[in-house]
Amino acid sequence: NKELQVFKEHTDTIYCIEFSPFSGNRYLCSGSNDKTIRLWDIENSNTLYVFNGHTNGIRCIDISPLQSNYNKNNDNYKALIGGGGYTICSGSFDQTIRVWDIETAKQLNVFKEHTRCVNCVKYGSNELGNIGYSNTILSGSWDKSVCLWDIRSNQQIQVFNGHTSPVYAVEYSPF
Asked: Are 17 and 29 in contact (CB under 8 A)?
């Protein structure tokens, strides 16, 4: 029942946090209404990266459960935080989903098909028994839709309509 650490660098409401699935959960990712995502090293309370690109507040984030298939053959590429190949996806009040390289803070993809705020995002996982799911993102929006996205092709795969209210949570079926 004691405060352990305080992270104070965001300048507005924080809507979401997520711990890294790698490096013993050493890293914390946060998304804020200040239009930024921050990656923190929780061992020393430092900000490692600030991800900029959204034009409105960040509503949701997820960290990829597996390393991506992005080509890292660039000679300047170095694994800085031990998560080589992991990505972050973020959903925003700006109606976009963005995918970020976790070690360079560079934007890799932008999905713009939602027509209202993106409330939730979720990476697929190979644990689902289908290798293809690790390259997908599910999203739910204030526009009442659920969308499935292919990260590799930068395309929307499927739209699930029928909800009569905004979608605030998405999850992959385990079977």
From this structure: yes
